[in-house]
Amino acid sequence: MAKVKEEKTNVMRVLDQKKIPYTPHAYPHGDGEAPDGVTVARSLGQDPERVFKTLVTRGASGGYYVFDIPVADTLDLKKAAKAVGEKSIAMLHSRDLLPLTGYVSPIGMKKQFPTVFHETAEILDTIMVSAGKIGFQVELSPADLIELVGGSTEDVTV
């Protein structure tokens, strides 16, 4: 019997290369739009507080910043701006996202931008983030992830 080859995303390849342990998770999805994060968390049987979404912003200075927060939470733009030393920040338009980052995961973007995780990441054993492709998530130690991307933690939600 032929062995079914597990699909690897670029995020998983980066984690393998850096020898960072992770657990891949796949969830059902339709063609086209990605499901919202809470739906993803539920389909994986996970608490939405453990599943983080990746948001990309642009500061008043023109710099780009990445924020990873629990999927059910909302980014507080004032707290986020303060966390990265900007006067103000705004969400990046979705049409500008892929050309800038390659895909939406804190791991393996074309360029590593300053990354801030919600402070709750520090108290969880593992968190889940996008594996860089709709239908896939990776679960890993938040400490490993934060170290990999050179990130920090702050209270950046409403």
Description:
It is built from 5 helices and 8 strands; from the N terminus they run αβαββαβαβββαβ. By secondary structure, the chain is α/β, with parallel strands linked by helices. Strands 4-2-3-5-8 form a 5-stranded mixed beta sheet. The protein has a 3-stranded antiparallel beta sheet with strand order 1-7-6. Strand 2 (52-59) and strand 3 form a beta hairpin. It is globular, with a radius of gyration of 15 Å.
Secondary-structure topology with pairs:
Blueprint: H1 10-17, E1 23-26, H2 37-43, E2 52-59, E3 64-70, H3 77-83, E4 89-91, H4 94-101, E5 115-118, E6 127-130, E7 136-140, H5 142-149, E8 152-154
Parallel strand pairs: 3-5, 5-8
Antiparallel strand pairs: 1-7, 2-3, 2-4, 6-7
Please name the defining characteristics of this protein.
alpha/beta, 158 residues, 5 helices, single chain, five-stranded mixed beta sheet, three-stranded antiparallel beta sheet, 24% strand, globular
Query: Going across the major beta sheet, what is the strand order?
Result: 4-2-3-5-8
Percentage of β-strand residues: 15-25%
Task: Profile the largest sheet.
Answer: 5 strands, mixed
Q: Pick out the low-confidence regions.
A: none
Secondary structure: helix percent: 10-25%
Task: Give the CA-CA distance, first to last residue.
Answer: 52 Å
Structural class: alpha/beta
Compact description:
This protein is α/β, with parallel strands linked by helices and 158 residues long.
